[in-house]
Amino acid sequence: MFELHHLSAQEQWDWLHRGEITPTELVAHYLERIHRLNGELGAFTTVTAEAALERSAALAGLVPATAPLWGVPFGDKDLVRRAGVRTTFGSRLFADFVPDRSDELVEVLDAAGAISLGKTNAPEFGMPSYTESLVAPPARNPWNLELGAGGSSGGAAVAVSAGLLPFAPGSDGGGSIRIPAAATGLVGVKPGRGLVPAGSGLTTLGGLVTSGPIARSVADAAMLLDAMIAGSAYRFSVRSPGWQGGPLLSAATRGEGRFQLGVMTTSPWDDAYEITLSPGARAALDFALVELAAIGHGVEEFALEPDGSYAPAFRTVWQAGASDIPAEGVQLELLEPLTRWLVERGRALSARQLVDALSALSEFERSIIRQFESFDAVLTPAMALTPRPVGWYSADDPELNFAQQVQYTPFTSFANVTGLPALTLPVFQTVDGIPMGVQLVGRPGGEATLLSIGAQLERRIGWHRRHPAAW
């Protein structure tokens, strides 16, 4: 039976503008699904039903020329402040915190005409690559509720995968968009450093963290990314019959071009940890290679040059990034063991250690860009392992926990260090019915190329038409 959430985000936008549905009808549909399904999924930590219905009513009949997401629902990641709405940052330390101001990304998406339905689940301060905090239930994978959804944008991915939202913004400092998107059968895009003004990465230590979309299809991801950029980069006009959207949506819709692709299964963590590619990850990569070659793309295997500086330098910057978490004295006891370990290690670092680590990562960035220069994009597995069970990560051994995270997803963090754009998309389903994806890493400014390649692969495979049972 057809339901409104079966429509893509673009189709919902079209229906809204043609008057076939109202913003209130669409919002009410998603709120009903959230009310019915969120208890077992853990996608949302806070649902703002009353505020969403009030906003949808206020938007009715008002279609600003610069509102590319008019009437379309989304969710704020619970690391992002929205004035008047409980924001926990995934931590017991902020279990009852209600900010009096909104972050810039919230204001950008509101200006785009979108309607927030609440806060999507995130781990403590976004530090882990899984979403299982002590302040909220775990985010469970809609394809198998015994499995986790990844992180740190785990709640956003669960909501989109289970049809509780058409798309959602996330943030990514080491894979936090791409990991949960890959784990739940979705498209995730980490834009290049500086592309999204409201989440550019330029203000974070090492320039690691940036904001981007999670969606069911490449085109829907591009639609949201265009709107996230549009806050200051360029403007939109109301769609006309020949209108193709913003520049990235146009690239995703056309899906044109033939490109030279590098293929690698090595990672910058190989010298520090035992990295093993699971049969599911290998099968997904091999399947994607066959399909990409059939489309007409050039494919060439290559290996990263060994670099023993990467692992210790990344660990240092990751720990230093936790040093400003606002916990002192007895408040530290409210933090989870992994976060407390990161905070204590970060605060113990000297300025010289941090400068040396940042210098090593800067040199690594130059090396990667040089190694990738003969390719339009580089293909890797999205993850080395299949999605991990809830409770799989060590709760009391931070060193083991960190190692487990690296071994699960060793291919994502280097794109944050280098500032390169990266996209994950699902291509394969294991015998257990679990989605597996691949990652494409582009050149500086290469988002349109990644979206074009992704759209071509998506059209050929048709994965976006597959859904979990909760659908």
What can you tell me about this protein's structure?
By secondary structure, this protein is of the alpha+beta class. It has one domain: Amidase signature (AS) enzymes, CATH 3.90.1300.10. It is built from 15 helices and 13 strands. The protein has an 8-stranded mixed β-sheet, sandwiched between helices. Strands 1-3-2 form a 3-stranded mixed β-sheet, with helices on both faces. It has a two-stranded antiparallel ribbon with strand order 4-5. It is globular and about 60 Å long. 55% of the residues are buried.
Fold topology:
Layout: H1 9-18, H2 23-41, E1 44-47, H3 49-59, E2 73-77, H4 104-111, E3 115-120, E4 140-141, E5 144-148, H5 154-161, E6 167-172, H6 178-183, E7 187-190, E8 210-215, H7 218-229, H8 247-254, E9 260-263, H9 279-295, E10 298-301, H10 310-321, H11 337-348, H12 351-371, E11 377-381, H13 398-408, H14 413-418, E12 422-429, E13 435-442, H15 447-461
Parallel strand pairs: 2-3, 9-10, 9-11
Antiparallel strand pairs: 1-3, 4-5, 6-8, 7-8, 7-12, 11-13, 12-13
Helix pairs in contact: 2-3, 7-8, 8-15, 9-15, 10-11, 10-12, 11-13
Explain briefly what this protein structure is.
The protein is an alpha+beta fold.
What class would the helix/strand composition place it in?
alpha+beta
Shape: globular
What's the CATH H-level superfamily name? Answer: Amidase signature (AS) domain
**Count, helices:** 15
Main β-sheet description: 8 strands, mixed
Helical proportion, percent range: 25-40%
Radius of gyration: 21 Å
Number of strands: 13
What is the element string, with H for helices and E for strands? HHEHEHEEEHEHEEHHEHEHHHEHHEEH
Q: Mean pLDDT, rounded to whole units?
A: 94
Widest beta sheet: strand line-up: 6-8-7-12-13-11-9-10
Total number of distinct structural domains:
1
